[in-house]
Amino acid sequence: MSSPEKSSPEDAPRDDIAPDAPAPDGASVPFWRAKPLSAMSTTEWESLCDGCGRCCLVKLEDEDTGQVAYTDVACRLLDAATCRCSDYERRSEIVSDCVRLTPESVAELNWLPPTCAYRLVGEGKDLPFWHPLVSGDAGSVAAAGITVSGKVAGSENEFGLFELVDHIVAWPVRWPRGAKGAAKPSPKGTPGASRRRRPKAGEQKA
């Protein structure tokens, strides 16, 4: 994702975003809750991308309605195994219709996946539990079923224009089951996760 231009001093912490995400690196408030997209540094902006690869899928737009549909066909530069662009720095030169996200364009691109951090923060929402900035683990994105890994039919170089219609899919614009939520449930055996077991017949209650 492209970086926003450097901006003026940071805005005050926002009250319109859920307050239950942990603050990274000991900060009092996570930057994505303390700043609007336009005030983020280049590093902060880039770190919002979870690397899911959904926005790198080929999309078809209806000329009459303007409605955008996703396919399970990947951009020629997307490495479907790692969900990373194979030539990130020169992507716009190689792929003429590659869309560079900016704070301004995020609000206009209604086709961004609902799981996209840029969209979520732009809408005043918190990051989900699986986002690397929250989980501290880049692998949590794939574990939550967010990435395109294993779901791509192939690269756009392998399909003709009319073949793409047969590859229209809905999953890129949906949340995987159990992927919503700003706080991951505690695993079994940790505080807050224990459950009382009903005593079996003949057992004595503690």
UniProtKB/TrEMBL annotation:
Residues 7-17 have a biased composition (Basic and acidic residues). It comes from the Bacteria. Residues 1-28, 178-206 are annotated as: Disordered. Pfam families: CxxCxxCC. Signal peptide: none annotated. Belongs to the UPF0260 family. This is UPF0260 protein Xaut_2409.
